[in-house]
Amino acid sequence: MSNRLLKVNIQKKLKEFDLDVDFELKKGCLGILGPSGCGKSMTLKSIAGIVDPDKGIVSLTMDEETVYFDSDSKINLKPQKRNVGYLFQNYALFPNMTVEENVAIGLSKNDDRKIVSEMIKRFHLEGLEKRYPRQLSGGQQQRVALARILAYGPDVILLDEPFSALDTYLKEQLRIELVNMLKDFYGFSILVTHDRDEAFQFCDELLILDQGKIIARGETHEIFEDPKKVEVARLTGCKNISKIEIIDEHHFKSLDWGITFEVSEKITPNITHVGIRAHDFTPAEKDDVNLINTVNASKLEMPFEWEITLENGLWWKIEKQMHNHDFEIPKYLKINPEDILLLEE
Amino acid sequence: MTDWSPIFISMKTASLSILVTFFLGLIVAWILIKIKNDTVKIVLDGVFTLPLVLPPTVVGFFLLYIFGVRGPIGKFFLDFFTVKIAFSWTATVIAAVVMSFPLMYRSARGAFEQVDSNLLDAGRTLGMSEWKIFWKVLFANALPGIISGGILAYARGLGEFGATAMIAGNIAGQTRTLPMAVYSEVAAGNMGEAFHYVIFIVIISFFVIFIMDYVTIRKEKQWK
């Protein structure tokens, strides 16, 4: 396990911004989270060799190092020679071929029979061998696409927004399947998504991309707990973000909500914003710290939670039972000084 | 007594020319969609489409200029192989190929462009050679469009008149194709003879279109 490394350092001029991504992966799965059009897919395509970066290095070490791309020594390995599997957003199954033919397409003639039937079994596609992709459901299509990639035996699997084409119910089930499959996979995998739940569930390590630049990298849990930057907080789903005016080391005034808060962490001068997750508020008594008045708040009922919007624009979310349709908004809310996220621009 | 030679000449010309046009059109369309420079693309597209919009006699004029005994290619063949191209049967094929080429090329290109580019990239990441990707993915998925382009090109080649008249002439038994024969018979006042040829052309044309449409529809149904 020790001698494995995926090195990616690429620069490419794009229409809207310049892509500049530099990271190394030593094991398992990496998630890339970012808004649409931030360069996520472009990064994956550069690793696969479908798109050529302007400058940089892409190399894979599996005991021995294989250089995929190196602008300095003019190396640019064809996608055919890279042994990288790519799961496209729309799965890119060949519509003119049956399930069986699709799975077998990357194999040389002699060894395909056995591997194909193995993959068909592993991905629960028995009985569908002679069907064409159009005759399959979205979930089945994704399984065929994965079977096709794994039959080819890649060192790296790239997953480009694998669930965006599916409806919610299917999504949840397939996520579990995919997580389990990747656990058994011996190589590297990179999952690209704009969905924070997916990123959170999938990978232990996370990289956040915005406008072609890496703005955060680290363990998934740490990034969600302490996003540090405004953009990262927003992408990890923080609903309430405001510009602040620092009062002293532990107090600030939020400019958007007009409330003064106390924080347990020391406020350093580089802090410009504050973030409060919508789930972190709790009902409060009149004399608690960080008190917020809920006068004129409006509520919206969701199947499993209440969404409350306060007069000053703050969001509060609280879980509820499906059959419970009544909810009295408490007079006051509070936020624990430890739960406030201090952010910089 | 009806002279059957125009029928044989036309069938021979149309069959050989569609064979040439079909593959040439595919290859040129494939090359063109791979070109990334837009200006080069537009210029080349213009050149390849020109025979479709120019009057056939103008195309014939250019062909005569190139393949005539004093033209660059015509002279070359005459000097080195002592073969005269203009006003020979070969000239009917050249005229049919040039006139039907734009239809084949444009249909093939349109059909190729309709194929999801992810499919080609998926093929590449699965280790398929470019040649295999072309036939098994691009060609196979563009087939309905390519076939309809082929039908149009075949019909165009079979009906070619203007450019053929210019470069191949109207020599009975040699370069007199069906459309030429219809013209000649009508000019000579033999409406009955002309009618035989007309009937024949209509039957072949209809038959070819019917067969190819049938194949296309069956193939599409299979995938869906």
From TrEMBL, chain B:
| Record keywords, A-Z | Cell membrane, Membrane, Molybdenum, Transmembrane, Transmembrane helix, Transport
Intracellular or extracellular location(s): Cell membrane
Spell out the molecular function terms from Gene Ontology.
molybdate ion transmembrane transporter activity
Q: Which GO terms describe its cellular component?
A: plasma membrane
The UniProt entry lists membrane topology as:
Multi-pass membrane protein
Tell me if ATP-binding is a UniProt keyword of this record: no
Q: Where is the ABC transmembrane type-1 domain?
A: 7-216
- TM stretches of this protein: 14-33, 42-66, 86-105, 133-155, 194-215
- Taken from the record, one Pfam family name reads BPD_transp_1
Task: Spell out the SUPFAM superfamilies in the cross-references.
Answer: MetI-like
**Per the similarity annotation, which family is this?**
Belongs to the binding-protein-dependent transport system permease family.
NCBIfam families the UniProt entry points to: modB_ABC (TIGR02141)
What name does the UniProt record give this protein?
Molybdate ABC transporter permease protein ModB
> Gene of origin?
modB
